[in-house]
Amino acid sequence: MLDSADDTADLDLLLYTAGADGAPDQLAASSATGSADEQIDLDAPAAGEYVLLVDFYSGAGQLDYTLTSYLLDPASAVGGLTVDPATLSAGLGETATLTASWTGLPYEQTFLGRVAYGETGQVTYLTVASGEEPETPTEPGPGPGPGPGQPGHPGGWSLGDILQWIWNALGDLFHGWFPWRG
Fold first, then answer.
1. d(CA 9, CA 12)
2. What's the total number of domains in the chain?
3. If I label 171, which of 44, 76, 90, 155 is the partner at 20 to 30 A Cα–Cα?
4. Mean of the pLDDT values across residues 150-164?
5. How much is the pTM?
């Protein structure tokens, strides 16, 4: 997988078998789109030595890039890749929507997955960056204190406010006992 630092450039990937002298011999695979980023997917390559060339097709100045390679080995699978729905029937030219999710991956790593479409020979490769480990939640602290205008809040009720509240509450109580008094 080739990732160009300059997304306006056009870099290509060329994979050759290596000759006896280690020089490129025969083209085994290539990826030469108009994009800055390229990817070669090689299923079951023959044993041997290969030479990978990055072709600076177009761009200005020094073009930096990152090359990443993956080896898909079912015996060393990590995590759980699921696709929903697991089975889908679609006709030629129809659009279908699938949801892929991956669980159980170590943090701060990048992984490659392969989704096969039944017996069609067609596949899709998925790159997943697991991201940073989330922070462990802390125990909640004490809840919010008394709000403005409540006893115990700075600038809250004064002694006079409290006595007035008690007086009003007693008045409400007496009015309930003696309804004829207005």
1. 10
2. 2
3. 155
4. 62
5. 0.57
Statement: residue 149 has pLDDT above 60: no
Do both 63 and 111 map to the same domain? no
pLDDT for the residue numbered 172: 60
Cis peptide before 151 (omega within 30 of 0): no
What does each C-alpha distance from 52 to 5, 39, 94, 97 come to in angstroms? 19, 12, 37, 35
Which has the closest alpha carbon to 32: 54, 6, 48?
A: 54
Q: Are residues 26 and 42 in the same domain?
A: yes
